[in-house]
């Protein structure tokens, strides 16, 4: 990246050039550091699977198989996000890995997020009932199996059970944390007499893994790189010491929801800058989600903002001189899409970036300031992509995967410029791959855009669960009251 910028940096004054070099040193993560982070990551994955536990929870999901591609049936999928509620009906057809989908989105009213738990579940049940009435008016329906994507940290003792560890995404509803959310949800459904049976409670990362594996047999890991970050993969039950008391067959697969945003909460290995430390200190939960705070979309714009405010307030550096930067001083006023626009500016004079600062922040920029702004955005975006690959490399090393596909979803993966290429380059460095012979040659481990995890993935996990019920081997996996 620096080589493309040097030619246009001839007019950058000495004080700004020194700052650019300082920021490069702060935010650049070299190959040796990536390898050290990955090695520590492998140990933390193992610790999370063991009885002692660690900062990465490594939650068993009770999703016990990859799909074959020949699953059939009609399923509902419910995805409860921070902004919208999505309801899908998915028909898995007789054709291999083929499905039909109809879906509706419902706005999640802001007042529900701090209301009562009854109001939340009643609203969700109303949306499900509306969906069924609009698509199946007048039909007599058997009970439709439902896969519920509940993407909040939850402990699962069975696949149709989930104890909420803590609310995220702006929710703060009393009386739900520490409780199993399934009976609350089922009570609201029963009250309406809707023909729905919750079959599986899933995390969006597990759904991403299963949906991607449905159409691609090389798929071994599912990841989310968006507002937050996470991953799921299949582990053998014999490699999960904390489940040893259940006497599950050692070679039986079990999808693990890593919740890896919490990697290195102890600050042993991640190369945190003073700006990362401020983000953590000022966050609602200091000391938690150390990895996520360095690579997830929620924080990239804030990192960028903190650096610019710091430079402006440094009397040795002359940036935005004599200008009112009150808008820039407002925490979380910039998001990762702002950085995306800076990195995408195609003009050599960075005129689009100049317009962006003028329109959004009321700041008039000089050309040297724009050069620093562009370089800073590149450094933050590149660091996020390179660090995110450490998690993928760690699972690959732990499992001994020399070749596989990784399904990734999320706004940062799908929309942030160069994120995929930078991540691929970091994987190449960590895993010591030989140089490509030509541009068409695939990498041994490739991170690809994922299938719809919270829709198709939820339906498939419901289908796989019902298959196990029919085979009679759900004891210890489905809640005993539901085990027939």
From TrEMBL:
It is an enzyme of class 2 (transferase). GO terms for biological process: glucose metabolic process; glycolytic process; intracellular glucose homeostasis; mannose metabolic process. It catalyses: a D-hexose + ATP = a D-hexose 6-phosphate + ADP + H(+); D-fructose + ATP = D-fructose 6-phosphate + ADP + H(+). Keywords: ATP-binding, Glycolysis, Kinase, Nucleotide-binding, Transferase. The keyword Nucleotide-binding applies. Residues 220-464 form the Hexokinase C-terminal domain. One of its GO terms (molecular function) is ATP binding. Its EC number is 2.7.1.-. Pathway: Carbohydrate metabolism; hexose metabolism; Carbohydrate degradation; glycolysis; D-glyceraldehyde 3-phosphate and glycerone phosphate from D-glucose: step 1/4. Belongs to the hexokinase family. This is Phosphotransferase. It comes from Phialocephala subalpina.
């Amino acid at each position: 990246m620096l080589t493309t910028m040097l030619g246009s940096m001839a007019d950058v004054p000495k004080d700004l050039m020194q700052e650019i070099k300082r920021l490069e040193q702060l935010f650049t993560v070299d190959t040796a550091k990536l390898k050290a982070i990955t090695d520590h990551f492998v140990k933390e994955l193992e610790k999370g699977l063991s009885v002692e536990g660690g900062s990465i929870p490594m939650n068993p999901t009770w999703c016990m198989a990859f799909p074959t591609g020949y699953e059939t049936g009609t399923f509902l999928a419910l995805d409860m996000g921070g902004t919208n509620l999505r309801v899908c009906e998915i028909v898995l057809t007789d054709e291999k890995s083929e499905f039909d989908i109809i879906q509706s989105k419902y706005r999640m009213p802001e007042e529900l997020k701090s209301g009562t738990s009854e109001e939340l579940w009643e609203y969700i049940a109303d949306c499900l009932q509306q969906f069924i009435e609009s698509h199946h008016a007048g039909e007599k329906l058997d009970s439709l199996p439902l896969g519920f994507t509940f993407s909040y940290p939850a402990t699962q003792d069975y696949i149709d059970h989930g104890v909420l560890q803590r609310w995220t995404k702006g929710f703060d509803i009393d009386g739900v944390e520490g409780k199993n959310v399934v009976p609350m949800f089922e009570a609201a459904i029963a009250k309406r007499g809707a023909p729905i049976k919750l079959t599986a409670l899933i995390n969006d990362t597990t759904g991403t893994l299963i949906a991607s594996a449905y159409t691609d047999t090389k798929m071994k890991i599912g990841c989310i790189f968006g507002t937050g970050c996470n991953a799921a993969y299949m582990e053998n039950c014999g490699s999960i010491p904390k489940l040893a008391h259940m006497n599950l067959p050692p070679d039986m697969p079990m999808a693990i929801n890593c919740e890896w945003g919490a990697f290195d909460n102890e600050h042993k290995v991640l190369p945190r800058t003073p700006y990362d430390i401020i983000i953590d200190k000022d966050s609602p939960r200091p000391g938690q989600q150390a990895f996520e705070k360095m690579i997830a979309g929620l924080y990239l714009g804030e990192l960028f903002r903190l650096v610019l405010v710091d430079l402006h307030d440094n009397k040795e550096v002359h940036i935005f001189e004599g200008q009112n930067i009150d808008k820039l001083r407002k925490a979380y006023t910039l998001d990762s899409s702002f950085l995306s626009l800076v990195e995408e500016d195609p003009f050599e004079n960075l005129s689009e970036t100049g317009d962006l600062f003028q329109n959004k922040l009321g700041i008039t920029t000089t050309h040297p300031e724009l050069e620093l702004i562009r370089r800073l955005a590149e450094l933050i975006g590149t660091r996020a992509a390179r660090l995110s690959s450490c998690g993928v490399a760690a699972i690959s090393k732990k499992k001994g995967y020399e070749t596989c596909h990784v399904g990734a979803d999320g706004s940062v993966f799908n929309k942030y410029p160069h994120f995929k290429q930078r991540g691929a380059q970091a994987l190449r460095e960590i895993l010591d791959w030989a140089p490509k012979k030509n541009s068409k040659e695939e990498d041994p481990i490739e991170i690809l855009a994922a299938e719809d995890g919270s829709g198709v993935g939820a339906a498939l996990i419901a289908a796989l669960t019902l298959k196990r019920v029919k085979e009679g081997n759900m004891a210890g996996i489905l809640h005993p009251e539901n085990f027939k």
